[in-house]
Every structure is written in structure tokens, then in C-alpha cells.
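Structure ticket #2291
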Amino acid sequence: MSKLSVSNLEDTLKEHIPADKLREVKTVMFGGETEPLRLSEKTEELGREFNFEVKGYKIPCAKEQLRAPRIVRVAAVQNSIVEPTDAPIKLQYQAICNKLAKIIEAAAASSVNILCLQEAWTAPFFFCTREKDPWCEFAECAETGQSFHFLSPLAKKYNMVIVSSILERDLQHNGIIWNTTVFIGNNGNYIGKHRKNHIPRVGDFNEATYYSEGNTGHPVFETAFGKIASNICYGRHHPLNWHVFGLNGAEIVFNPSATVGELSEPMWAIEARNAAIANSYYTVGINRVGTEVFQNEFTSGDGKPAHKAFGHFYGSSYIAAPNALRTPSLSRDRDGLLITDLDLNMCRQVKDRWMFSITGRPELYAKALTRYARHDFKPQVISDPSLRRAKL
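Resolution: structure written out below.
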């Protein structure tokens, strides 16, 4: 994997900013400092042996007098593909599974409760190519597909909820394809799924060639370790998408993604963190890493020369809290495992402090959006009368 001049923003700040000023810089940029989380020696050993970054943090939360802490240990996994994109798809898939099995084992060694994988983790992010052969062969049934059979035993073995983003083959509806997140319970059971609500139409993100906007709404899944949801990749650009997961009671919303530096990196550190603040829940931004090169050149009608690579997936996975605090990111160029302890009590604490649920005025916006959705919508614009006189 190619090395970037800046592998990790936080490490670069630490390298160049004096220690006496760094704390204040972190407070302004990241809401303060997270506490280090001591991980097991086995977790660290696996990271060294299989060359993936391991980081652990605790997000501090005020103790309450009546409620006991609700500590949940969450993990985000970012990874590159293993085999070249022209290798047989079974070989590509198995190589990724072999890599992830070690990362999931490392998470389990530090008693992770909930683990989320990146968007479409089973394959290269081939949507840029607009080719159907062989890529559609990666699509699988959410409940009986190969990825479920790979992850279900691991979830049961490690007493871990696993959030798995795949290309779904809908066997109930003539085999159409969806971009779907599957929720696997800590008993290895299938809990449910959510299909991607917003499909990009920008740059090389030619996903509409393969699937349409999802039809599952904004489900929140009550698990053994809390109420969780998934806002898939491009959905993070839509504040209302985040918001409705909050209305449905989510405590942690995962954002499994696959996005490249030239397009979205300036937005990345802002969007999931802003969603955590605005909706009083935790968010987990997960992005794949590496550069994937395809056999045939492709274009996307944007005037750029034909090319074989989507761009660099910049990783930088992180976790944000409802009180504006966020963890440092994983690197921009390495596989990684980010483990963080969260106290779900913070969600209600922040709701009580900021009162967004009371001050949000949903009825006001419901009326505005209802009007906007009508074919005869007229914008509420009041013109300065002097402008009309000037035209006369």
C-alpha cells in the first residue's frame, strides 16, 4: 500500500506542536482528549504479526447517582483488499475473509461488544467501473449468504454483535441488488438489515448502475449491548438521514463507508461528529483504505481522462460522542482496528443538557417538508417592494 506524506493527522500535530499547547489545540479541534484504553497483549501481538494498526480509547462520561454506567466496547475496522481485482472472485473474497478473521480475533481478545466493518467489505469497490461481469457475483442473500456464514460463528464464539455491510441479492424480489448492512447478534443470529437510503451521483460513484435507494426506512436494532443503526456511506451527507435514526432511539449509529480523498476528505472529520452532536448519540465513521486498480479504464462524464483507479481510500476511521468529543483517527494508509469504550448514559445526559429534542420543533419542519414535496410547491420568499419599483 502506498505511503502518504501524512499518515495520521493527530500524530502530525503531536510531532510539531509543543506539548503545552497541544492540549488546547485538541480541545478546540476534537472537543478535548480521550483517555487511552489498555488493550490485551494478544490484541497488540496480532496487530504486529498481521500488520494492522491497533488503537484503544475511553470516552469519559460523568457518573450518575441512580443509573449505573452502561459501558459498551465498540470496534471499527478499516482494511484494504488483498488480491488484485482481476483475480477470481472467490479468491478475492476468501483473502479478505482471512485478513478480517485475524482483526476480529484481535478485537475479541480485548472483549469488544460491537464491531462494524467498512462498506461493501466483501469485495473491491467496483462500482466505479459500471461493469456487471463479474462484480454482480459478489451479491448474496443477507440471511443465508457466504458473508453471514463467515461472520455468524465468529459473533457467537466471541459474544459480539457484528455489523456487516454487503451487496445484497434480494431473493424475494427477482434477485435485485441492494447496498445493505446486516446486523448479526452476539448469539450468531440474524437480527435484521438496513438498505442504503441515498445513492451518490457524483464522480466515479456509479452505484446507481447496480442498485437503487433503499426501502427499509431508518430501523434501529435493539441488541444485547444497546440500540444501534447504520447510516451507509453517502447517507452521511444528508442530515435528515442521521436525524431519523435518532428519532427512532439510536444510541450508536455506524457509518460504514468507502470514499476517496480528492472527493470527500475535507468533509470526513466533520459529518459524523456533527451528527453525534446534533442527535445526541455516538457515531462511528469507518472508511476503507488503499488504492484499488481495475483491469479496464473507465470514465464518469466529468471531463477527466480515462483511468483504472478510483482514487485513494483514506481510512481515518474515528468515533464521535454526543458531547462533541471524538477519538483520534486511524491512519490514512494502513489497515486498522479502533477500539473504544462508550458509556451510553451520555446520550441522555446530553439530551438533558442541550434539550435538542424539545427545542427541535419537528412539527415546524414536517409542515415545510410536506409543502416542499408537493408538485405545486412555492418557495416562501418575500421580496423587497423597492426591487419591483426599480424594475419598472
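Closing remark: The first strand starts at residue 35 and ends at 36.
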